[in-house]
Write a structure and sequence with these properties.
Blueprint lengths: L3 H9 L10 E3 L15 H13 L3 E5 L2 E5 L2 E2 L4 E5 L3 E5 L8 E6 L2 E6 L3 E4 L2 E7 L2 E3 L21 H12 L20 E4 L2 E6 L2 E3 L6 E4 L2 E6 L2 E4 L13 E6 L2 E4 L4 E3 L4 H7 L3 E7 L2 E4 L2 E5 L7 E11 L6 E6 L7 E15 L2 E6 L13 E15 L3 E4 L5 E12 L7 E3 L7 E8 L1
């Protein structure tokens, strides 16, 4: 059931980037930049540019607590954080100038992510230190929902969607300062040969790690503790050959959410997220452990999930698929095996094709070939929850060799296509 041949082929195609041995120590740059050591953005970016211009290597940030604005990575540069390094990013929006980016699947000009790379190759963030976005309800997070229940970002979200729907050119979709679309923490846009390992990420404005239209990505041994709104842990979007291994997620939204563009912007590029491996990960808190969508217009396929665990009682679903007839997109060939789950608050498998706009569109979603094996859940409110509509398509869901304990509610399955197949083999519902 688990396609190990295809799994191994993907694994063998993911290559860890290699960097020159030369090192660029941040301390040597302090006296070049002025006497103001409070904001070291210029120091870090100068070291990255020097490293890049000299053929690449490693920029080493020493132990200590530093304050910083946006960092822009360059090809052949490994940004290394020592064990007791803490980089605290400013929360003043004025420090985050505009760049080409994508906000929840829609292209625009907006605040630079805290760490950003565009069209670079062989880049890395490694070491043992901590990246602290310093986001809270008193700055970035308040844009989603303030303590007085105001939602500052809603107007800009509606404006951005309007621009997409009316085919406004990207270079005229200008947001940034005096607008309220929060930046990602790390966004790697049109990049290849990416390594992120060993670091800890806390308090992100929104999405933490967002590879976009990139390939050959290895994310390993990363700890994410960020429970703010829309704080997805890792969001590969229209990416291929991705390995997420041995990571810890404690998030305010989905732990891992795989995406491929939204609506007309997603259809223009039409690049799927594919050949993605998620293994040996530990999920603590989040809406979903693994989520496909909701921005999935370009499609999602060949996703392999193995040997993952959840702890605590905060996860709503393990595998969640969100789509509708406005976004469309094909999601297929999903393989899951060897999963140990403490508690699921909603359902183990949740497929919702009535998400947001639901059936009110012309791009019918298709989901098929989901293979699930060797699942153990200690507490499960519902095993399967599927909501679809006439003319959508769901088929070939296989569940075998699994144990679901302490089930609170029966499964709910709403599929309209006649040739649907949901197969259970050696599954115990206790």
């Amino acid at each position: 059931m688990f396609n190990y041949k295809k799994f191994n082929l993907i694994l063998n195609n993911i290559n860890i980037p290699v960097f020159k041995k030369q090192k660029f120590y941040l301390k040597t740059y302090f006296d070049k930049i002025s006497n103001n050591y409070i904001d070291i953005s210029q120091v870090i970016n100068s070291a990255i540019i020097d490293c890049h211009n000299n053929g690449g290597g490693t920029v080493i940030i020493p132990d200590g607590e530093f304050y910083c604005g946006p960092i822009h990575l360059k090809s052949n540069v490994n940004l290394f954080l020592c064990a007791n390094t803490i980089i605290k990013f400013f929360t003043d929006p004025k420090k985050y100038f505009n760049v080409l980016t994508r906000w929840e699947g829609i292209d625009c000009i907006n605040y630079t992510p805290l760490i950003y790379a565009y069209n670079q190759t062989n880049i890395a963030i490694t070491g043992y230190g901590t990246l602290d976005g310093q986001a809270s309800l008193y700055n970035w997070w308040s844009w989603k929902k303030n303590i007085d229940n105001t939602t500052l970002q809603d107007k800009d979200v509606k404006l951005l969607i309007h621009m997409m729907e009316n085919n406004i050119p990207i270079n005229k979709r200008i947001f940034g300062y005096n607008h309220f679309l929060r930046p990602n923490f790390i966004q790697l846009y049109l990049c290849s040969n990416i390594l992120i390992t060993g670091i800890t990420i806390i308090n992100s404005p929104m999405w933490e790690i967002h590879p976009l239209l990139s390939n050959n990505i290895y994310i390993n041994n990363v700890t994410i503790n960020s429970i703010g709104p829309n704080n997805d842990g890792c969001n590969p979007e229209s990416c291929s050959n991705v390995l997420i291994d041995n990571c810890y997620f404690n998030t305010g939204d989905d732990c891992i959410a795989i995406k491929s563009g939204k609506n007309s912007d997603g259809r223009k590029i039409n690049i799927a997220s594919k050949n993605i491996i998620i293994q040996n990960c530990l999920m603590n808190k989040g809406h979903g452990a693994i989520v496909l969508g909701s921005e999935c217009t370009g499609g999602i396929n060949n996703i392999f999930i193995r040997n993952c665990k959840t702890i605590g009682e905060q996860l709503q679903s393990f595998l969640r698929i969100k789509n509708n007839a406005v976004r469309g997109g094909i999601i297929n060939n999903i393989y899951i095996t060897d999963i140990n789950i403490q508690c699921i608050k909603s359902s183990f498998l949740n497929i919702n094709l009535l998400y947001d706009e639901g059936q009110n569109g012309t791009y019918l979603p298709k989901i098929y070939n989901i293979y699930i094996n060797n699942i153990y859940i200690n507490l499960c409110y519902r095993v399967i929850d599927i909501n679809s509509f006439i003319h959508s398509f769901i088929n070939n869901i296989f569940l075998q060799n699994s144990i679901f304990k302490n089930i609170k509610y029966p499964s709910k399955i709403q599929i309209f296509n006649k040739d649907n197949l949901i197969n259970f083999n050696n599954v115990k519902f206790l």
